[in-house]
Design a protein that fits this description.
Elements lengths: L4 H25 L10 E8 L7 H4 L9 E11 L2 E11 L4 H12 L9 H4 L2 E6 L2 H4 L14 E8 L5 H12 L2 E9 L2 E8 L1 H5 L1 H4 L3 E5 L5 H4 L4 H13 L1 E2 L7 E6 L18 E3 L12 H11 L2 H6 L4 E2 L3 E6 L13 H15 L5 E5 L19 H10 L3 E5 L2 E5 L9 E5 L12 H7 L12 E6 L16 E2 L26 E4 L4 E2 L6 E2 L6 E4 L9 E4 L1 H19 L5 H10 L5 H4 L8 H11 L6 H5 L5 E10 L2 E2 L2 E2 L1 E6 L4 H7 L3 E9 L21 E6 L6 H16 L11 E2 L3 H4 L5 E9 H5 L3 E7 L2 H4 L10 E10 L9 H4 L6 E5 L2
Parallel strand pairs: 9-12, 10-13, 10-14, 11-13, 14-17, 17-18, 18-20
Antiparallel strand pairs: 1-3, 1-4, 2-3, 5-7, 5-8, 6-7, 15-16, 19-21, 21-22, 23-24, 25-34, 26-27, 28-33, 28-35, 29-32, 29-34, 30-33, 31-32
Helix pairs in contact: 1-3, 11-16, 13-14, 16-17
Length: 817
């Protein structure tokens, strides 16, 4: 309560009178008039510290013309002190609504309960509102006075002509507005480029302003914006951009080339890093797809980069290898492996010491896609990627592909490959069923690559063009994108694909469900090669877009941890992934493994997250081990690795029966044997396999080692093993035995049980190295990455600190009996 209500009320009354007088004088002097605008004044009401305004009394909604609350801000004054600030538009002649109430407050100020005290007691100050008062984003993001800036102008919907009036004001004031406007309930939004001073006069001319914001998602506005409008946004980002240095890791885009002169790309892609797999091809982008991928591979979310006011320091660079020949030419499917190998070689010759991730968003229909028994089997292209990932060279001669015996640990490569797209739909299709029936395309079935599918968070048609009135997004938020292919149709003899999913956009259906399309509002903003237009921004979607973002994520991990192997980066991406609520809703209740495994083949492990991939949390401890195992010797198993884990044993034991989660991911690269001779035993596709197991709570180390020896022998001979364990693995040991060179599972149980499980074994199983002693490369060693994380959800407990001091835990290597 104010110390002197009478004085307080009189001060507010005088301030309102002054606001009215000032507004009248500004209207008399204004140079811009807009037909249909209502004269009035924007007034800022500010509360006492720590007090909330009576907002409903500031928004009376009485009569045809009445004061209207437009925006509310909480203003931080420092030291934890805040005030509430409300901006109200008062039409000319309607100020008496507040003056009369304050007058009655003053007249009854000596009473115990003055009239209108709920309104007036809370108001500390009244002043004319500037555009600062209409700014509802954080105050420190308000533009500098002379800065040319794109504003998001939120207009109240009054008569349908608010956009027309705003554009008329902008034209008269010499301001540029965006071509499109978006509707949100009782608000309409459009973009305007202006300095603070240029836009300030709007409050004296227009009654339509409700809020001003920084554009947070310019995709819908810029996707169809003209070249001039897009250039202004691009220029703003370039001014805030700090490219990574030449020693930083790179995403090598294997595609149609890249438009290197693009202002958003040229600082991260010098011409000397632009190549073509065939020296006779030009290196520039003559199809457009490669430039679209480059924007996402460099920025991830380009829309967010454009919207942010902050300096953007990039952590990685770009390289480009033109894998697709100029239009009218086409690579034969049987040479794609050699073309890919030639392309990677050119990038590596140019910068041999650079760490890089290869992004491949070019796929071909699998030749065996109609044969469910064969779906997922290797092709010459996928086998070439597996060989390149494993560090081997690939040479094409008249007899076909030859894998060169030049493997080396330092030559390992990480390929991020798109799962391929569902390209058409029919009325009556269910998009999840369609995706489950469409197997991933060649070469996404490769064992050693990170295969990327698509999901979507884009589930609103707000802002869609008029042509899409009544259309609805097909996939709900958080679900698999209708574009994405899966490995549900694969035989169990082939790996799970995709490994992860990222944003790939959505599909819209017509009101009668007979037509399908992808409007810009359901796609991602990215860079454009000006082949048929001068516009430098466009939209893209599907698994290609998801793959480019996954490559950016991988390069970010490389930048954060330069010593990590490609095998480890792949493992971290997968290990960081989580299923969305929509995906989790598809997993049935109960403990049946088969439905879970089928959904694993649809979603992979879910959506990866950079923060989870690069940092532990207090309640989510992540441990990483990189090691080399020698699997075989003269046809027999040679080594088993036992890892003593730096477990927070006391903390876990103290939690007793509280539920915790343990996640384990094992990643390694196999050497392929692509000859189609049954792929069993001596003719198996993989050089070797690795598996992991955790010590049980009731086992001694000796008992654990004995069980692992027996289990390794049983798996090597492809015999079933019995399971007798507490807790529950989400997929189970049978799924871990599935083909592939990446295995992940999640154990759920109580903390006291987990406390006794501080040992893990990694052991080899059969492959052609074991069965073909003359070609066994075990002596060179097989690298692997092992990642474990302990999570204590919903528990306020620190599992990280007790482990922080425990480093360099030795690995025990035993020779198999």
């Amino acid at each position: 309560m104010p110390p002197d209500r009478r004085q307080h009320g009189q001060q507010l009354h005088d301030a309102l009178r002054q606001v009215d007088a000032d507004a009248t004088e500004r209207r008399r002097q204004r140079e811009v008039e807009v037909e249909g605008a209502i004269d009035g004044v924007y007034i800022s009401f500010e509360s006492f510290p720590g007090v909330q305004l009576a907002l409903e009394k500031l928004d009376p909604r009485q009569g045809a013309l009445h004061p209207e609350l437009r925006s509310v801000q909480e203003v931080d004054l420092g030291d934890g002190v805040t005030v509430e600030r409300a901006t109200v538009f008062v039409p000319q002649g309607k100020l008496n609504h507040f003056l009369d109430r304050i007058t009655r407050y003053v007249e009854t100020a000596d009473a115990a309960k003055p009239r209108n005290r709920e309104l007036v007691d809370r108001i500390q100050a009244v002043r004319t509102a500037s555009i600062v008062a209409l700014w509802t984003d954080p105050p420190d993001e308000f533009p500098e006075q002379a800065q040319m800036f794109w504003w998001e102008a939120w207009l109240r919907r009054r008569d349908g002509d608010e956009v027309t009036r705003f554009r008329a004001f902008a034209a008269a004031a010499g301001l540029r507005t965006g071509r499109r406007s978006l509707g949100f309930g009782d608000r309409t939004v459009l973009l305007v480029e202006a300095t603070v001073e240029q836009l300030a006069s709007a409050v004296d001319v227009l009654d339509d302003l409700a809020e001003l914001r920084r554009p947070h998602d310019p995709t819908q506005f810029l996707a169809e914006g003209d070249a001039t409008e897009q250039s202004a946004w691009i220029g703003d980002l370039v001014d805030r951009l700090e490219p990574a240095d030449s020693q930083a890791p790179a995403v090598c885009v294997l595609d149609s080339g890249v438009y290197q002169e693009h202002p958003l790309l040229e600082g991260s892609l010098p011409m000397l890093d632009c190549h073509a797999a065939d020296p006779s091809w030009p290196v520039f982008d003559d199809r457009g797809h490669g430039t679209e991928m480059a924007g996402l591979a460099l920025y991830g979310d380009l829309g967010q980069a454009l919207a942010s006011p902050q300096l953007l320091r990039l952590r990685h660079r770009l390289e480009s290898v033109k894998l697709l020949p100029p239009p009218q030419l086409q690579n034969a499917p049987d040479v794609y492996g050699a073309v890919t190998a030639a392309g990677t070689s050119r990038a590596e010759i140019q910068a041999p010491a650079r760490r890089r991730v290869y992004s491949l968003a070019v796929t071909a229909p699998a030749a065996t896609s109609t044969n469910s028994a064969a779906a997922g089997q290797p092709s010459s292209w996928s086998a070439s990627l597996d060989a390149l990932a494993a560090g081997r060279g690939v040479l094409a001669d008249e007899d076909g592909l030859v894998f060169l015996d030049d493997t080396g640990h330092d030559a390992k490569r990480l390929f991020v490959v798109s799962a391929g797209n569902v390209r058409s739909w029919k009325p009556g299709d269910e998009h999840l069923d369609r995706s489950d029936l469409e197997p991933v395309e060649d070469p996404a079935q490769a064992w050693n690559v990170l295969t990327v599918g698509a999901y979507t968070e884009l589930d609103t048609m707000t802002g869609a063009a008029a042509d899409f009135a009544g259309w609805t997004p097909w996939a709900p938020r958080g679900e698999l994108s209708p574009f994405s292919r899966t490995s549900v149709a694969f035989s169990r003899t082939w790996p799970v694909k995709p490994d992860v999913v990222l944003e790939g956009g959505n599909v819209a259906r017509s009101p009668d469900g007979t037509m399908f399309d992808t409007p810009p509002n359901l796609q991602l903003l990215t860079t454009n090669a000006p082949l048929r237009t001068t516009r430098l921004l466009t939209t893209t979607c599907a698994t290609s877009a998801a793959t480019a973002q996954a490559a950016a994520l991988s390069a970010s991990v490389m930048a954060e941890y330069p010593s990590l192997w490609p095998e480890t980066v792949r493992a971290l991406i997968v290990h960081s992934a989580e299923w969305t609520p929509a995906m989790k809703a598809q997993f049935p209740a109960g403990r049946r493994k088969a439905p879970r495994i089928a959904l694993h083949r649809r979603y992979g492990m879910g959506v990866p997250d950079l923060a989870r991939a690069t940092h532990s949390a207090i309640d989510a401890l992540t441990l990483i081990a990189q090691d080399t195992i020698h699997p075989f010797d003269a046809g027999a198993m040679r080594e088993i690795h036992y890892h003593d884990l730096p477990w927070p044993t006391d903390v876990l034991a103290g939690l007793g029966g509280a539920q915790v989660r343990l996640r384990v991911t094992l990643s390694y690269f196999i050497e392929p044997n692509p000859g189609r001779r049954g792929w069993q035993r001596r003719y198996s596709y993989a050089s070797h396999g690795l598996r992991f197991d955790i010590r049980r709570a009731t086992e001694s180390n000796a008992e654990f080692q004995k069980r692992i020896n027996e289990k390794a022998l049983a798996e090597d001979e492809q015999r079933a093993t019995s399971s007798n364990d507490t807790g529950e693995w989400f997929f189970g040991s049978d799924h871990q035995r599935a083909p592939g060179s990446l295995h992940t599972d999640i154990w759920y149980g109580n903390a006291a049980d987990l406390a006794q499980r501080g040992a893990l074994a990694v052991f080899p199983v059969t492959g052609w190295w074991k069965e073909n002693k003359a070609r066994d490369r075990s002596e060179d060693g097989a690298r692997y990455a092992l990642i474990l994380s302990i999570e204590t959800p919903d528990l306020d407990v620190d599992v990280w600190t007790p482990v922080a001091q425990q480093i360099n835990i030795p690995v025990s290597i035993t020779t198999a009996p």
